[in-house]
Specification:
This protein is mainly β. It has a single domain, classed as Nucleic acid-binding proteins (OB fold (Dihydrolipoamide Acetyltransferase, E2P), Beta Barrel), CATH 2.40.50.
């Protein structure tokens, strides 16, 4: 079983694109802080939400600074940087995302709307 639940803030506004099969994919990044004081660390997770919910109204609320809780499967993405050195990032294939209370950084305002989304079984839309 591979299941990850993280909470944090969006590091940028969510973006929606379509893969060649026509499936919508919402991409966003979450910063998660662990530890306290001098031992505090920030971990960044690249997230992908596939299927119907990716093109729904959720994107309008997925703005930089928004607090979220994300549930999904984690995968390590290894790649080669432009300078030839190796790099890695953590990608989460999202099963559920919930918007949490609190204002967005930069004074963004969120007019009424959903604070959470019910889980949707979109397993048929996953690319693997």
């Amino acid at each position: 079983m591979n299941k990850l639940i993280i909470s944090g803030r969006l590091t940028r506004d969510a973006e929606v694109r379509f893969i060649p099969s026509g499936t919508p994919v919402m991409s966003f990044s979450v910063a998660n802080n662990t530890g306290f004081g001098d031992n505090q660390k920030t971990h960044y997770f690249e997230c992908s939400l596939f299927g119907k919910r990716a093109e729904g109204g959720l994107k309008d609320y997925m703005l930089k600074g928004q607090q979220v809780v994300v549930e999904g499967e984690i995968s390590l993405n290894q790649y080669e940087k432009k300078d030839g050195t190796g790099g890695a990032s953590l990608r989460v294939f999202v099963n559920n995302v919930e918007l949490m209370g609190g204002s967005q950084q930069g004074g963004g305002q969120r007019s009424g709307g959903p604070t959470s989304q019910p889980p949707v079984n979109d397993d048929d839309d996953l690319p693997f």
